Structures are given as structure tokens and as C-alpha cells.
Amino acid sequence: MESLSDAALMKRVRNRDVDAFQVLYSRYESRIFNFLLRYVGNRPLAEDLLQETFWRVWQAAASFQPDRGEFRSWLYRVSLNVVRSEMAHKRYGLDRLVSEGQSQLAARHQQTGREHDPAGRLELEENTTLVEKALSGLSPAMREVIVLKCLEGMKFSEIASVTGTPEGTLKSRFHRAIAELRRRLLPGER
Amino acid sequence: MQHLTEEQLVGLVLEHSASYQSRTRERADSGRQHLGVCPECRAKYEELREVTGFLGESRAAPPVSAWSRLKGRMDRSRRPGRDWTEPRWLPLVSVHLAVIVIAVALILVLGGWLESSSLWEWMRTSEFVSRIGPRGLIGLAFIAGGGLCVLALTPVLWWESRTRG
Fold it and tell me: Which residue in A70, A160, A177, B54 could disulfide with A142, CB within 3.0 to 4.6 Å?
């Protein structure tokens, strides 16, 4: 089962195959969770949104059409819709969410190698908090492009299909977001 | 000399990240060569590298119980199996049939009461009824009956749509 492609697994999920769904889940759980966590900056909320994302995938498996795009893009689109509707529904301010969850996020981040070194760990946590603060200062649209580009390694064309925003807009948004992050993370320069 | 695109620059910056591995490997070498000779692209590359370096590779571990919670939700949502010996339209027809029978019974009872009441006499002698004639009266009765049926069926259909999800 593990060797099957995403599309083949989704075909089984459509027929209510729980084992196939579990394979897909374990394949994308960490990525989607980190995407959500970076986006909302609040661990408990990110956990709920993770469950909601995969719940919707299970519910709407029949609407996935492999000939219209990759499963990965579809999954991120579902996840993004979940976050957006959550924001609209609860009328949460992202800043508020970030400030609520920042300490938890910094404390729970896992790193390979450096977490064993106390000095390295401290530096890492400081950096994480710094990055989260900087990200929280960006608009949701800018944050989307930064997280999907820099952390998920997506191409602009893929981000365009996930967010429904034209590539040109995404590129200029990315430029502005990088400049903004640079201003916040490296205030002494330029 | 053609400069590197944004996509290529980000690819070079992130080439060691797990997300980018094996995706851009073959293009990375030519991009790196270009960086060696193009100060403009080199400056953009450094700028990107500084910022994305902060974003780092840190990954938070997802909650351990996430799958079991989701699985529980999936199990709870499963509806009891449908009885395939019973046609799907049968409950719908029986509910509607019951509503129609009740409506007819109501009309008969109301009709009986109307005939024995002074209202019938008033209607027979009424100027309005004589003006619209017997056809007009039947038409009016149809409109009133149709309206009553719509009023009676609306809550039934609403209830059905809710219970069927």
C-alpha cells in the first residue's frame, strides 16, 4: 500500500478504504500540520485544523480529479480553505492567534542535532520566536506565499493553483514579503 | 546574459531543504555557475538566503493522537446500513401520502361544516360569488387548496432535508 501513488490511494479512499486513507494521512500529516502551524501560529488551533482538513478530504474524496492536478495541490487547497473559513467564522485576528500560541510553538519545535546543545537550543528558540513574530506582521496573503514557497518548496505555478491567485501577483507579493521579513529580521541592514 | 528567475533563485537557496531535494538538482549546477559571474543575481541570492535562513528547517511534531481522533470521528459518522429490500423512495412517498390524506380529510370536514353553516348561505347570495360565477369559485378554491398544500408540505420537506443531511 505504501508504494502506491497519491492518486491511486485516493481512488481507494473514494471507495471508503480506511487503510489507504491512513497511508495518505501519514504521508502528509507533518507537512500540513507545519503549514497550518506557521499560518496560524497556534498549536491547539493547528491541531484542530489538521483534523478538519483530513476530515474534509475523507468527506470530499469523490471530488478529487487526478486529471485536473496533483493531490498535493488539492490537499493544500483544502487546508487553506479550512484556515480561511475558520478565520472568517471565528473572526480571529491572526496577530492575536500568533501571540497566543507563540510560546507554545517555540517550546515545541523539534530540531535535529541542535536540540541537544543547550546554547544551540536557546538560539534556535530565539530565532523561532523572532521568525514567528516577523511572520505575524505579514498579511495573511503574504504569509501564504512565504510559507508555501520557502517552507513547502512549491513552485509559483503550484501556489497559484492552491491559492487561486495569478502567478504575477504571487511573485510581487513574494518580493514584498521578503523585503518586509528582511526589514523585521535584519533591522540593521539597509 | 540572462538572469536567474525568482523560481531558480529560491530553488538554489532551498536546494538542501527536504522539500526541494531531487526536484531541482540538475538545474542547480547551471544556476550556481551563473551566480559566480553575475553580481546582480548574486546579490538577490544573498538577500533571499539571509531571510529564508531564518525561516530554517524547523519542523514541529504533529500531535500523537491526531490519527486516532480523526478515525474516531470517521467511525462516528458512519450511518447504519440501509435496508436494500426497502425502496429508497418509499419513506418519501408515505410521508407525502399521509400529508395529502390529512389535507383531504380536513377539506371534507371543513366542507361539511361550511355547508351546514350560515356562511354557505351568505356565499350563495353574495354579490362577489355571483360576479365571479361557479368557475371563478372553483378556481379560487384551487388556489386556496394549493396554498394550503404548500404550507403543509413546507415543514415536512424542511424536516426531511435536515434528517437526511
Answer: A177
- Interface contact flag, B58 A109, Cβ < 8 Å: yes
pLDDT at B137 over 70: yes
- Cα–Cα dist A71/A4, whole Å: 13
The amino acid present at B11, given as its one-letter code, is G
DSSP E strand stretches across A13-167: 109-110
Interface of A with B (CB under 8 A): 18, 22, 25-26, 29-30, 33-34, 37, 43, 47, 50-51, 54-55, 58, 105, 108-111, 124, 127-128, 130-131, 134, 146, 149-156, 171, 174-175, 178, 181-182, 185-186
Global model pTM greater than 0.90: no
Provide the sign of the torsion angle of the four alpha carbons B35, A151, A89, B165, taken in this order.
positive
Mean pLDDT of A81-104: 63
In degrees and rounded to multiples of 5, residue A181 shows phi and psi of: -65, -40
- In sequence order, the 6+-apart residues with CB closer than 8 A to the CB of A56 are A78, A81, A82
Q: Nearest residue on chain A to B58, judged by CA atoms?
A: A111
Domains of chain A: 1-92 (1.10.1740.10)
